TrEMBL record:
<dbReference type="GO" id="GO:0005509">
    <property type="term" value="F:calcium ion binding"/>
</dbReference>
<dbReference type="GO" id="GO:0007043">
    <property type="term" value="P:cell-cell junction assembly"/>
</dbReference>
<feature type="transmembrane region" description="Helical">
    <location>
        <begin position="704"/>
        <end position="725"/>
    </location>
</feature>
<dbReference type="GO" id="GO:0016342">
    <property type="term" value="C:catenin complex"/>
</dbReference>
<keyword id="KW-0677">Repeat</keyword>
<feature type="domain" description="Cadherin">
    <location>
        <begin position="371"/>
        <end position="484"/>
    </location>
</feature>
<keyword id="KW-0325">Glycoprotein</keyword>
<dbReference type="GO" id="GO:0045296">
    <property type="term" value="F:cadherin binding"/>
</dbReference>
<comment type="function">
    <text>Cadherins are calcium-dependent cell adhesion proteins. They preferentially interact with themselves in a homophilic manner in connecting cells; cadherins may thus contribute to the sorting of heterogeneous cell types.</text>
</comment>
<keyword id="KW-1133">Transmembrane helix</keyword>
<feature type="domain" description="Cadherin">
    <location>
        <begin position="485"/>
        <end position="587"/>
    </location>
</feature>
<dbReference type="GO" id="GO:0008013">
    <property type="term" value="F:beta-catenin binding"/>
</dbReference>
<feature type="domain" description="Cadherin">
    <location>
        <begin position="47"/>
        <end position="256"/>
    </location>
</feature>
<keyword id="KW-0732">Signal</keyword>
<dbReference type="InterPro" id="IPR015919">
    <property type="entry name" value="Cadherin-like_sf"/>
</dbReference>
<dbReference type="GO" id="GO:0007156">
    <property type="term" value="P:homophilic cell adhesion via plasma membrane adhesion molecules"/>
</dbReference>
<keyword id="KW-0479">Metal-binding</keyword>
Length: 749
């Protein structure tokens, strides 16, 4: 049925045309809208004259449980169709007259706070409400209509739910019914919320379902909230809570923790030392048999013939400890342990845990020298500081590089710090070097004790005998090469000098030096010879072929008697002179004389040529001089007394006691000849006379005979004493063998 106002509106739309009398259109047609003003001539109507509704106890106040519907045919949006709802009467009026409240604009009927409290205490009713709908909004005037609402009070069926237990991994068709809720009022819609979100749902009948399998390890419990709501989504009452507990099933095997690095155990750790403690985790319910884990050692197995196991395992705690079997440093072991739930009972789940164990090295080995007694090392006395004496090698049985670092020291035999050690920090050998100059007189040998120690602290027993090494250093005495009293020698001899003539004596510069042995080198003509011990140079054979004014050079070599490798040499230059004339004077023979050392006031008188009538006519005096040998000139002094005699004495306070041949050169005009003066130098007594060695006197016993006499005397005395003691023993035995009565009594005085 079309409202009257809409019909009027349609009828008011027309077109206006302006025409002349003859029908000609001057303007138009133009539409003309005629608006018809609405009048409040329509009465509002309820959708029902009587409303019947059920109201459940427990409904919260202000929550609508009925929405009234009414209509007004006046123009919408105007005051004529602006409707308001009111409660005119409540019957019965107990326990309160205002048990209900009606929202004027929406027509939403709800319990008042007072009515909600009354219904919760006791069920009342039924109630009948007379309600009115009026147009014109809040104005006093307007059309109205009434309706009746029958309210039935029903018992509250919205009761708490007991927790339910659902098995995880349940194999049933889904969705699966788990619970039922019911709101006893009308126009209810159910809503479900899960904390945390889970596979749950509720239908329009209040039936709760689980829509899929549950996993206890993912979520052990859920809290479901079920709400009873009106059509506007408002809760009639407080939500119901349902706790869903997921029952555990043994669907998880124990899980071993991951290890990033091996477990390190020092070697020589005592039995019982804990290696590791396994803590496998089972995702099944804690405290239940499904998560009760026990352990079993799978490997390593005990070695064949071994007294015990290398590792022990506590099957309940998972503690792995060291056993009795020894372990070696740097040994890598893989422990395999089975972890089983349900206490290892039938139906249990298990997994294998692996633990890598490394036996770390400790510093339990002291370093030792490979050779503890070094062969004696000889060093010359003039060895330079820094000279390498010996190299010692040491070893360390430890494996860790830090434990193989060694420290060396000289423990004994080097009080003066003559020697030192040199080594690299990570080296296993040490060099023994000389730091100071050696002295044979201070010490002819050095016995050095070198020790090696570990840089890191040593664990266990201390160093053994192998940690020391003995080095014996022998000092070689420095013997300088022999030195002669002059670097070169010269002698002048007539070409007619006979064989056997003494030219000069080669002597050492130090008279108390070691004995020398002399020899001639490059004596091509064989004119000379030298005495090996005394160093006297003689004419070996006639000087045939030598010419006056010529020079003849030979090399004199001297060596130590006890050190033949040490030698020296000097040149000997012979200058040949013209042979003397046939009338050369004869020289008075000089007898052998003795001179004392230390020097006394004595000497030897040397005479010139004897009286010769051929020389009386104008020959001048003779001159005397010592031979050219520097040693002779050093040891002797020659003084001319007159033209025919000279006086020979010792020039030094001390001259070696022995026979000396002193050459004296006698010259007259251009003629020269040589006298050989034989002088014996000896030690003198108080009277200035030579002391001579005395031989053994005849009739005096020797040492051997004296010892023999002494031994014979002692033996005779011993035999005599043995005879006496034997005699006394036999006499006493005879007395003891006689009867007591036959022995006379000794009278006491």
């Amino acid at each position: 049925m079309v409202p009257a106002w809409l019909l009027l509106l349609f009828l008011s739309v027309a077109q206006v045309t302006l025409e002349t009398e003859d029908g000609r259109v001057l303007w138009g047609p133009q539409p003309v809208l005629v608006r018809v003003k609405d009048e409040n001539d329509q009465v509002p109507h309820f959708s029902q004259f009587i409303y019947r509704v059920q109201l459940s106890q427990g409904t919260r106040p202000g929550i609508p449980f009925l929405f009234l519907e009414a209509s007004d045919k006046d123009e919408p949006g105007t005051a004529n169709s602006d409707l308001r709802f009111y409660i005119l009467n409540q019957a019965p009026a107990q326990p309160s007259r205002d048990m209900f409240q009606l929202e004027p604009r929406l027509g939403a009927l709800a319990l008042s706070p007072e009515g909600s409290t009354s219904l919760d205490q006791a069920a009342e009713g039924p109630y009948q409400l007379l309600v009115q709908v009026k147009d014109m909004g809040d104005q006093a005037s307007g059309h109205q209509a009434t309706a009746t609402i029958d309210v039935s009070i029903v018992e509250n069926t919205w009761v708490p739910l007991d927790p339910i237990h659902l098995a995880e991994n349940l194999k049933v068709p889904y969705p699966h019914h788990i619970a039922q809720v019911h709101w006893s009022g009308r126009d209810v819609r159910y809503h479900l919320e899960s904390q945390p979100p889970g596979p749950f749902d509720v239908d329009a009948e209040g039936t709760l379902h689980v829509t899929g399998e549950l996993d206890r390890e993912a979520q052990a419990e859920y809290l479901l909230q079920v709400q009873a709501q009106n059509t506007r989504g408002e809760d009639y009452t407080e939500p119901l809570e349902l706790r869903v507990v997921v029952a555990d099933e043994n669907d998880n095997a124990p899980v071993c923790p991951l290890r990033d690095s091996p477990v390190s155990i020092p070697e020589l750790s005592p039995p019982g030392t804990e290696v590791t403690r396994l803590s496998a985790e089972d995702m099944d319910a804690p405290g239940s048999p499904n998560s009760h884990i026990v352990y079993q050692l799978l490997s390593p197995e005990p070695e064949e013939g071994a007294d015990g196991r290398a590792f022990e395992l506590d099957f309940t705690s998972g503690s792995v400890t060291l056993g009795d079997a020894p372990l070696r440093a740097a040994q890598n072991i893989l422990l395999r342990v089975m972890a089983a739930d349900r206490g290892g009972a039938e139906g249990s789940l298990s997994s294998t845990c692996e633990v890598a164990v490394t036996i770390t090295d400790i510093n339990d080995h002291a370093p030792e020298f490979t050779v503890s007694q070094i062969e004696p090392v000889s060093l010359p006395e003039d060895a330079e500081p820094g000279t390498l004496v010996a190299t010692l090698m040491a070893t360390d049985a430890d494996l860790e590089p830090a434990f193989r670092l060694m420290d060396f020291a000289i423990e004994a035999g080097d009080v003066e710090g003559t020697f030192g050690l040199d080594w690299e920090p990570d080296s296993s050998h040490v060099e023994l070097r000389l730091l100071k100059n050696l002295s044979y007189e201070a010490a002819s040998s050095h016995k050095l004790v070198v020790v090696v120690r570990s840089v890191a602290e040593l664990v266990g027993p201390g160093p053994g005998p192998g940690a020391t090494a003995t080095v014996t250093v022998l000092v070689e005495k420095l013997v300088p090469p022999p030195k002669l009293d002059q670097e070169s020698y010269e002698a002048s001899v007539p070409v007619s000098t006979p064989a056997g003539s003494l030219l000069l004596t080669i002597q050492p510069s130090d008279p108390i030096s070691s004995p020398l042995r002399f020899s001639l080198v490059n004596d091509s003509e064989g004119w000379l010879c030298i005495k090996e011990v005394s160093g006297e140079v003689h004419i070996a054979r006639p000087l045939q072929g030598a010419q006056p004014g010529d020079m003849y050079t030979v090399l004199v070599e001297a060596r130590y008697e006890d050190e033949p490798t040490l030698s020296t040499s000097a040149t000997l230059v012979i200058r040949f002179l013209k042979a003397p004339s046939a009338w050369a004077p004869t020289l008075n023979p000089v007898p052998t004389r003795h001179l004392c050392t230390p020097r006394q006031d004595h000497g030897v008188v040397i005479s010139g040529p004897g009286e010769d009538p051929d020389l009386a006519g104008g020959h001048g005096p003779y001159s005397f001089a010592l031979g050219p040998n520097p040693t002779v000139r050093r040891d002797w002094h020659l003084q001319a007394l007159n033209g025919s005699h000279a006086y020979l004495t010792l020039a030094l306070h001390w001259v070696e006691p022995r026979e000396h041949i002193v050459p004296v050169v006698v010259s007259h005009d251009a003629q020269t000849w040589q006298l050989l003066i034989r002088v014996i130098v000896c030690r003198c007594n108080m009277e200035g006379q030579c002391m001579r060695k005395v031989g053994r006197m005849k009739g005096m016993p020797t040492k051997l005979s004296a010892v023999g006499i002494l031994v014979g005397t002692l033996m005779a005395i011993g035999i005599f004493l043995i005879f006496i003691f034997t005699h006394l023993t036999l006499a006493r035995k005879k007395d003891l063998d006689q009867p007591v009565e036959s022995v006379p009594l000794k009278a006491a005085v």
